[in-house]
Write a structure and sequence with these properties.
The structure holds 2 protein chains of 2 kinds. Chain A is built from no helices and 11 strands. Chain A is mainly beta. In chain A, β4 and β5 form a beta hairpin. By secondary structure, chain B is mainly β. Chain B is built from no helices and 10 strands. In chain B, the strands form 2 sheets. In chain B, strands 2-10-9-4-5-6 form a 6-stranded mixed sheet, with no helix packed on it. A 4-stranded antiparallel sheet of chain B has the order 1-3-8-7, with no helix packed on it. Chain B is globular. The chains are: A mainly beta, B mainly beta. The interface between A and B is medium-sized, with 24 and 22 residues.
């Protein structure tokens, strides 16, 4: 099973600041990685697929990069609605797994 | 508009059983693999089970292997999760979602989710 490790666990930032989240895989997942955003009481929302492609309707301030074992999600300038929990997920082989999440909170 | 409507959650005692359903609409159900993903209270997401579009192959996470069975009825556009020998640690919101193994790259991931159904295992 591929383990995805996200860091940091919590990121405390102010609106307008840049956020950089990390996801590290225990073995290569090529580019088969996605990022999701989840707000309290809501289902997750797909943000990024295949490591670097924005999903339909996702604002340009969200970007993803990486391949192999090291990935990152960047939010260029935090909007109030971006404060949430973010998860990475791979689909390289079975079982698909999620990272444990990074909470982006208001400083 | 894509809709995924989970139902069947509730309170059950340890060792008990429950069957979840996910009614799908707004897309060609029989063309997509379907998955269940769960989230324990205050915890992260855990992928649980998958079934192919035709239903001829399934795969479960080790944590539920031998206890949970995923199935589907393409004539009813409905996905199921039969949960037996339930444990306290199975307490979670259960979401259904879908994906494809080929075609549009975005569709290979969980583009759409239901609202979830809460399963509570407690005595």
């Amino acid at each position: 099973e591929i383990v995805l490790t996200q860091s940091p666990a919590t990121l405390s930032l102010s609106p307008g600041e840049r956020a950089t989240l990390s996801c590290r895989a225990s073995q290569s997942v090529s580019s088969s990685l996605a990022w999701y955003q989840q707000k309290p009481g809501q289902a997750p929302r797909l943000l990024i697929y295949d490591a670097s492609n924005r999903a339909t309707g996702i604002p340009a301030r969200f970007s993803g990069s990486g391949s192999g074992t090291d990935f990152s999600l960047t939010i260029s300038s935090l909007e109030p609605e971006d404060f949430a929990v973010y998860y990475c997920q791979h689909r390289s082989n079975w079982p698909w797994t999620f990272g444990q999440g990074t909470k982006v909170e208001i400083k | 508009e894509v809709q995924l409507l989970e139902s069947g959650g509730g309170l059950v005692q340890p060792g008990g059983s429950l069957r979840l359903s996910c009614e799908a609409s707004g897309f060609t159900f029989s063309s997509y693999g379907m998955s269940w993903v769960r989230q324990a209270p205050g915890k992260g997401l855990e992928w649980v089970s998958v079934i192919t579009d035709s239903g001829d192959w399934t795969y479960n996470a080790d944590s539920v292997k031998g206890r949970f069975t995923i199935s589907r009825d393409n004539s009813k556009n409905t996905l199921y999760l039969q949960m037996n020998s339930l444990r306290v640690e199975d307490t979670a919101v259960y979401y259904c979602s879908y994906s494809r193994s080929s075609g549009d790259p975005e569709s290979k991931y969980f583009q759409h989710w239901g609202q979830g159904t809460l399963v509570t295992v407690s005595s």
